[in-house]
Write a structure and sequence with these properties.
With about 190 residues, the protein is of the alpha/beta class. The protein is built from five helices and twelve strands. The strands form three sheets. An eight-stranded mixed β-sheet has the order 4-1-5-6-7-8-11-12. The chain is globular. It starts with a strand and ends with a strand.
């Protein structure tokens, strides 16, 4: 039986397309999912677009919207993946850690430094990791980025141009990926 994952999208670089003013969210959740052929092989996925924003525009009002969607869906899915822009992803992950305290499923935020359509994108690997973590059964709020899984309340963005964009403050990564797969430690 396949793991049932909810994919919530909010915009961000991962779903952006070039415009005259630079990158702007332009790909919806269904289109994003179509670019991930591994999804239907391993998971049953439901997609919902809840926001369509550059993450620099995500504020406390949007955190409430995101938290409500996750809270309302928590009993219907094995895990939840939330795509999000990297500029405020760590803030959202931290806030959700407290707004969803005690959540019984994995909630995994991910994004990308380059849009999913870019030939050198990190989006595919980050999404693979996020879905794997969402299927792990390890409850809590996490950030999945650059082959590492971090506790949401410990994540911080430290680099704007490097794929290794996030660090964990005073706590080791919850999971890492190597040639043997995803390895989780106690959270």
């Amino acid at each position: 039986m396949k793991t049932h994952i909810l994919l919530l999208t909010t915009g961000g670089t991962i779903a952006s397309t070039p415009t005259a003013e630079g990158l702007a969210p332009g790909i919806d959740g269904q289109e994003l999912a179509r670019r991930l052929p591994f999804l239907t092989d391993s998971y049953t996925v439901t997609v919902r677009d809840i926001l369509h924003l550059d993450s620099s525009n995500i504020q406390p009002e949007e955190w409430q919207v995101i938290a409500r969607h996750i809270y309302d869906a928590r009993e219907d899915y094995d895990g939840i993946v939330l795509t999000h822009g990297t500029d405020t992803m760590a803030y959202t992950a931290s806030v959700l850690s407290f707004m969803l305290l005690g959540i019984s499923i994995p909630v995994v935020l991910t994004g990308a430094q380059l849009p999913i359509d870019h030939p050198l994108t990190d989006a595919l690997e980050n999404l693979r990791l996020a879905f794997s973590m969402a299927a792990s059964g390890q409850a809590g709020v996490f950030v999945a980025f650059d082959r590492r899984v971090l506790l949401g309340c410990r994540s911080v963005k430290t680099r704007t141009k490097d794929f290794h964009a996030f660090e964990s403050v005073n706590w080791p990564p919850v999971g890492t990926v190597d040639a043997r797969g995803l390895h989780l430690s106690a959270a």
